[in-house]
Amino acid sequence: QVQLVESGGGSVQAGGSLKLSCVVSGLIFSRCTMAWNRQAPGKERELVSIMSRDGTTSYVDSVKGRFTISRDNAKNTLYLQMNSLKTEDTAVYYCRTVVCGTTSLTYWGQGTQVTVSS
């Protein structure tokens, strides 16, 4: 059974930092390209960052220079370090698989709420 479990969300003031974690089970994590998505109230879910299995990363323009995606294959864990948070970063953050080996099925976590206040 595939499971993705996010943690690390919370409430923080603008300018603050949070680090999200996503523990993956039921898959060979090291073979997976992973992503963080977010969904703000009243908006569509958007891609925030992707990290391929070889370590290549990309970010949406709005978080470049502030967010850092990383992974620890030994711990089957994906991270998102979020610095200099802005009120517009308020959203539910989801981790998901993009592709794992030859499997293109997408799995999502349950999400973790990030609230940034001014």
Secondary-structure element order, as H and E?
EEEEEEEEEE
Mean pLDDT over all positions: 97
User: What is the global morphology?
Assistant: globular
Widest sheet: strand ordering: 2-10-9-4-5-6
**Radius of gyration, whole Å:** 13 Å
Distance between the termini: 40 Å
Low-confidence stretches: none
Q: How many β strands by DSSP?
A: 10
Q: How is the biggest beta sheet arranged? A: 6 strands, mixed
Per DSSP, the total helix count is 0
The chain-level structural class is mainly beta
| Strand portion | over 45%
Helix percent reads: under 10%
In words, what does this structure look like?
There is one protein chain. The mean pLDDT is 97. The protein is globular. The chain has strands at residues 3-7, 10-13, 18-25, 32-39, 46-51, 57-59, 67-72, 77-82, 91-100, 112-117. It is an all-beta fold and 118 residues long.
